Amino acid sequence: MKDLLFQRHRRLRYSExxxxxxxxxxxxxxxFITPIFVVEGENIKEEIPSMPNVYHWSxxxxxxxxxxxxxxxxxxxxxxxxxxxxxxxxxxxxDDEGIVQKAIAHIKKREPNLTVIADTCLCQFxxxxxxxxxxxxxxxxxxxxxxxxxxxxxxxxxxxxxxxxSNMMDGFVAAIRFGLDExxxxxxxxxxxxxxxxxxxxxxxxxxAHSTPQFGDRKTYQMDPANRxxxxxxxxxxxxxxxxxxxxxxxxxxxxxxxxxxDFSGYPVxxxxxxxxxxxxxxxxxxxxxxxxxxxLEKLTSMKRxxxxxxxxxxxxxxxxxxxxx
Length: 326
Ligand code: PBG
Prior knowledge:
InterPro entries: ALAD (IPR001731), ALAD_AS (IPR030656), Aldolase_TIM (IPR013785). By secondary structure, this protein is α/β, with parallel strands linked by helices.
C-alpha cells in the first residue's frame, strides 16, 4: 500500500469550506436574463400550460412581475409579445404602438435600471408563423431584412436597451446595425441569436407565443443540429456584421457549441436555456422524479462552465431565489 503512487483528489472534497475554495464556476443572479410574455388586454396573468409558473401578462398587471425580478437581483428581462392581430407582413412587430413597444416603455418607466432586451423577430406577428416574408411557400431573405430593421428601430425608440434578433435570415445583423445607426441608435447593442438550431426544444415557447409555423418548418433558416463548424461560420459573420453579444440556442444539448463559440470569438456569449429544456425539468420535478433545485442549479452551472457569460432562462427567478437563500 505504502509504495502505491497516486493522487489524493478527495482531499479537496472533504468539507464544503474547502470545496467552495476550489470551485471553478460561480453562478449568480447577475448572470440571468428572464423572459417575459406580454399580451394585449386587461387583468391577465395566465399560466402557460406547457411552462408551469411562466405567465402571459397584460400591461396593467406587469408591475407584479417586474418588481419581483428586480427584488431578486436579476439585471435583465427579454420581452416577447403576443399581438392581438397578425398579418402576412407581421405589421404589428414594427408598430410603434405594438404590444412589445408598449411593454418596453412601461418597464423602463417603472424600472429605469432594469436592462430591457427586445426579441426582434416576425414569427409571433405573421399569420403564417414564419420569421420573414413568405412568397410561394418560400421565406424571402433580403425582403425580410428591411422589416427586421424597422422592428429593431421601433423597439429602440420605445426604450429597449438591447435588441436581440432571432430570425436567422442572412445579413440580419448588418441590416439592423445599419437601421439603428441611421436612426441615431448607434449605442444600442445587438445581442444576436447567432447560432440558432432548428430545434424540437422550442415546442412550449411556440404554444406560449402562438408562433408555430402554419406550414413547413424552420429548417431553411435555422441550423441543422448535426453541425458544429457551421456554428463558427454563423458566429463569425455576425461578428463581422457588428454583433455585440452572441447567443447559442438551445443550450443544454449544445454545451459543446457554447464552448467553441466562446473560445473562437472571445465575445460575450449568451446561453439560451429554451422552453423545452425548462418544461422537461418542470414535468419531472412535479412527479418527484428529480430534485428541481439541485438539477436546475447543476444545469445552469454547466452552461457557465461551458463558457456562457450570461444565461437566458425561464428558471431565472427560482434560481436567483435559491442562490440568495443557500
Ligand atoms: C422567435 C423565437 C423562438 C424562440 C425564441 N425566439 C421560437 C422559434 O424560433 O421557433 C424559442 C424560445 C424557447 O423555446 O424558449 N423566433
